[in-house]
Amino acid sequence: MKNSNRSILLGAAFLMATSAIGPGFLTQTTVFTETLLASFGFVILISIIIDIGAQMNIWRIIAMAEMRAQDIANAVLPGLGYFLAVLVVMGGLAFNIGNIAGAGLGLNVLFGISPAMGALLSGILAIGIFLIKEAGRAMDRFAQLLGFIMIALTLYVMFTAQPPVGEAVARTFAPDTIDILAIVTLVGGTVGGYITFAGGHRLIDAGLSGKAALPEVTRSSVYAIGVASIMRVFLFLAVLGVVSQGLALDPDNPPASVFRLAAGEVGYKIFGVVMWSAAVTSVVGAAYTSVSFIRTFSPVLEKYHRWLIISFIIISTIVFVSIGRPVLILILVGSLNGLILPIALGVMLVAAHRADIVGEYKHPVWMTAFGAIIVIAMAILGAYALMNGIPQLFRT
Fold first, then answer.
1. Given a cut of 80, is residue 5 above it in pLDDT?
2. Where are the alpha helices (DSSP H) in 132-164?
3. Helix (H, G, I), strand (E, B) or coil at 21
4. What span, in angstroms and rounded, lies between the C-alpha atoms of 391 and 371?
5. Cα torsion for 15, 357, 343, 223, to the nearest 10°?
6. Whole-model pTM?
7. Residue 119, burial from CB neighbour count under 10 angstroms (0-12, 13-18, 19+)
8. 8-state DSSP, 59
9. Which structural domains are found in the chain, ordered by start?
10. What's the confidence (pLDDT) of residue 325?
């Protein structure tokens, strides 16, 4: 493999992984571990299997079609790509406001500045990446650097927490309880919405597609899930170590209290670094991927796509700084986000067997079957979440 290809594949993997590892990732992992204890290992295991099945299918089909997801969807059924793009952009914008908020919180922990000022500075940094001439390469390196930092610091906190590793391993394969909604939440948070397309679209932009690149693309897709899963496992064990000692987490900020209880004030500062790194890389990934879903619809959008990405970040930052995080919108869009994976994956599976889209490529039967099971399961559970999300909006 050429060094340039290796760099692109690694960058795509980390872009997807760091897009998944955001403020919500940290909070969900902490809360579910506190509730399910060692049995949360089983939830992580099942979600990893589903994540790999979904991502391998999507990345391979994008690579063989040599088109972005929305163009594939329009080829399957005219207009479907526009619908998918609307869902992705809505979800990406809403959650990016949360990512900006998380970046502001991270700098607040580190330097004591207000979350609003921290969000503003983080937004400016994210914009700066896309002002660089080699923006794609800069984005790749940024995601890799902060990804490694997050994992290394969380690993340190995990060791200081002294988790019961033996029990965690045992309960991963023989859980006391099985929480289906926790599995759905983790899958949605890892490969839901725009996230699974972040790396796939990055490979298209870098020109790494077609039959010759298929083995590399497949490995990169699995590697991306591996990076996100390693972070999830380390954080799970850190939380488990803290709660197993009988220590209570702060309900207002569960992940921060884990780091502080495990490693004192040093741990709290480490949390600031991890939170900021997780949030700002998610800001970059959400903006890049969301715009990648609309840039092919017009030559004007394609020409100015970099400025669209910058505008996306500016809007997210302004909304948070001026009115805060729109909780009600996040609830609704969160429910809609649960439907994006089954729609997108379903479309990809249909496209995989269309010669006018993928040429002579033959998609493995086992991958189609695996993908179909994921589509059906996530569609049912995503619809359930949506039906419960809308009434919640009106009750709140």
1. no
2. 135-161
3. coil
4. 30
5. -30
6. 0.88
7. buried
8. H
9. 3-395 (1.20.1740.10)
10. 57
